[in-house]
Amino acid sequence: MLNKNSIETPLHYHADQESSYAAGSGNTGIVIKEYPLLSHLILRGRATDSAFVDGVALSTQLNISRIPNRVVSIEQESIYWLGPSEWLLVSPYSRKDELKQALDKHLSGHVAVVDVSGGQTMLNLQGEHVHEVLMKSSVYDFHPDNFQPGKCVQTTFAKAGALVSKKNDGSFDLIIRRSFADYIAEWLIDASKEYGCRIEVGFNQ
Length: 205
Fold this sequence. Notes:
Elements lengths: L29 E6 L2 E7 L5 H11 L10 E4 L2 E7 L2 E7 L3 H11 L5 E4 L4 E7 L3 H8 L14 E6 L2 E7 L5 E6 L3 H11 L5 E4 L5
Parallel strand pairs: 1-11
Antiparallel strand pairs: 1-7, 2-5, 2-6, 3-4, 4-5, 7-10, 8-9, 9-10
Helix pairs in contact: 1-2
């Protein structure tokens, strides 16, 4: 059992500054939410291998996408397409051991399950000016006509790297390396300065 009171999240030092970035009008055009307590498991296998596909489905209740740049989600669990033979499974941290055991049970052969939870974290961006901030931060085209809910892409973001996906509510999830979290937060704060920005730091279940 993790003691949340003893853990510093990647954006821990922004916790006392949540309201200090708001524009003079009091409006907040961008809200950055941190979701640090998640399980991140890399799955490697062949999409043409029915035993692998079925094993992942039995373990997670999710079907891996064979379509590039798609994310499949049910409640708090998601599988992101990273490449023809690679996916990222994200779930609550409390589910990590259970999922690893299930995957070990149902997968065999030329497959791999790698725990990268300690090296990654997730941010969620929402607000009426989120598209403007994304356009400042990446060369990728995040226009709604090109980037619909359920799509994900690995791209350069603020001179770092990020896995970006769009949710049904219109917000965007960013999965980034933990070591770049503070840098990207500072970048987003600066890019959002004209709209007002608030960072919400905390834990999810």
